[in-house]
């Protein structure tokens, strides 16, 4: 396996053009490259590749090489029918990458013929359709009874079958008022829904100052730290997993102030639930913290100028808010963290006092 690891470390990607990648594809590229620094969720990767040729969609990117290097050694160990069925889309993607995007010697490639077994057919569950309406009862379909005549009990009956009872002017007015009210309520609901659709922007992200009380290595993941971070929550400190073991010594993880993304959806990393993310600057495979202003306290709000709004309680992964906004974060020559928008001045990352947040050494860094 050490031979494979050394071989993968030397792999390079065939020339590709990433300039035509969409904003969403760039966000997916960044997301998968970040996840590759930790323990990848192979089930999520397999589901993602179900309808894709490459990691980000129909176009190749550097994420294909990054994820390939991460997954390939593990794929070599898949032998059982259950594993082949579970990861069939990853296997198909590996075979495509090893024959098109990278130059992997034939004797070192994943031998697809070794996987030529009867794999159970993939079945997608379909939700049973509900009956739009229950079958009418005999009573509901029976002809109306005349309203102007009395039956043997002395009660009034409805009009004969096929005869429509004429409504009084008051009843007609009431019907019209009811219809108008229903129409107005529907229009108001549509307007409210339209107003709620706001394009992803930095104000939706809950950036705060956090204080790392203690950090230890994850017991089941060599690349992860498990930190206890005070973010000013009434419930107390949160547990946060960070893939920083290869980049930051554990001594530098103790009792220090950082900036955290506090409203990402919690994820479980090798058995430990992570409830936030530490904001870092990276460049050329080197990583350092984004530093809050001096004198900060846990829970202090951090935001980009012009985007001091109310953050989402929890970022909905389906809306791709973080994935859309994060690629526009970077650092200037003065090491100031900014949000860049085409045709607009850079928005600086500040606190309520207007004090700046900076990283330590990287210019034009990737901030995530």
What features would you describe in this structure?
- The chain has 368 residues and is α+β, with helices and mostly antiparallel strands.
- Helix content is 27%, strand content 18%.
- It contains nine helices and 17 strands.
- Strands 3, 4, 5, 6, 9, 12, 13, 14 and 15 form a nine-stranded antiparallel beta sheet that branches. The chain has a four-stranded antiparallel beta sheet with strand order 16-11-10-17, with no helix packed on it. It has a two-stranded antiparallel sheet with strand order 1-2.
- A hairpin with a 2-residue loop joins strand 10 (280-283) and strand 11.
- It is globular and about 90 Å long.
- The two termini are 32 Å apart.
- Residues 134-146 have a biased composition (Low complexity).
- Keywords: RNA-binding, tRNA-binding.
In total, how many beta strands?
17
Radius of gyration: 30 Å
Number of helical elements: 9
Distance between the termini: 32 Å
- Unreliable runs, pLDDT <50, ≥5 residues? 130-134, 137-149
Which structural class best describes the helix and strand composition? alpha+beta
Largest sheet features: 9 strands, antiparallel
Helix coverage percent of residues?
A: 25-40%
Indicate the mean pLDDT.
85
Shape, principal axes of CA atoms: globular
Order of helical and strand elements: HHHHHHHEEHEEEEEEEEEEHEEEEE
- Please give the oligomerization state of what you see: single chain
Strand content of the residues, in percent? 15-25%
């Amino acid at each position: 396996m050490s031979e494979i690891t050394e071989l993968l470390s030397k792999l390079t990607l065939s020339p590709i053009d990433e300039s035509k990648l969409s904003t969403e594809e760039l966000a997916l590229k960044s997301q998968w490259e970040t996840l590759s620094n930790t323990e990848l969720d192979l089930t999520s990767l397999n589901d993602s590749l179900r309808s894709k040729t490459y990691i980000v969609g129909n176009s190749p990117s550097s994420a294909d090489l990054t994820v390939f290097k991460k997954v390939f050694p593990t794929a070599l160990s898949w032998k059982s029918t259950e594993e082949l069925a579970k990861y069939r889309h990853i296997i198909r993607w590996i075979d495509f990458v090893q024959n098109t995007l990278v130059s992997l010697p034939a004797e070192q490639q994943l031998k697809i013929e070794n996987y030529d077994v009867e794999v159970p057919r993939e079945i997608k569950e379909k939700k049973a359709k509900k009956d739009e309406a229950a079958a009418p009862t005999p009573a509901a379909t029976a002809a109306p009874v005349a309203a102007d005549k009395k039956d043997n009990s002395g009660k009034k009956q409805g009009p004969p079958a096929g005869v429509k009872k004429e409504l009084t002017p008051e009843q007609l007015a009431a019907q019209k008022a009811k219809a108008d009210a229903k129409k107005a309520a529907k229009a108001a609901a549509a307007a409210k829904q339209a107003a709620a659709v706001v394009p992803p922007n930095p104000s939706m992200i809950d950036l705060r100052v956090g204080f790392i009380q203690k950090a230890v290595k994850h017991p089941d993941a060599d690349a992860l730290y498990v930190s206890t971070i005070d973010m000013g929550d009434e419930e107390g400190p949160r547990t946060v997993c960070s893939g920083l073991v290869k980049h930051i010594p554990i001594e530098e993880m103790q009792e220090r102030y950082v900036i955290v993304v506090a409203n990402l959806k919690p994820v479980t990393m090798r058995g430990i639930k992570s409830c936030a993310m530490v904001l870092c600057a990276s460049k050329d495979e080197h990583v350092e913290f984004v530093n809050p202003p001096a004198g900060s306290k846990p829970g202090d709000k951090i935001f980009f100028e012009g985007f001091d709004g109310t953050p989402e309680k929890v970022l909905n992964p389906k809306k791709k808010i973080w994935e859309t906004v994060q690629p526009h974060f970077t650092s200037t020559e003065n090491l100031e963290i900014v949000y860049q928008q085409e045709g607009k001045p850079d928005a600086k990352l500040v606190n309520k006092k207007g004090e700046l947040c900076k990283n330590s050494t990287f210019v034009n860094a990737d901030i995530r």
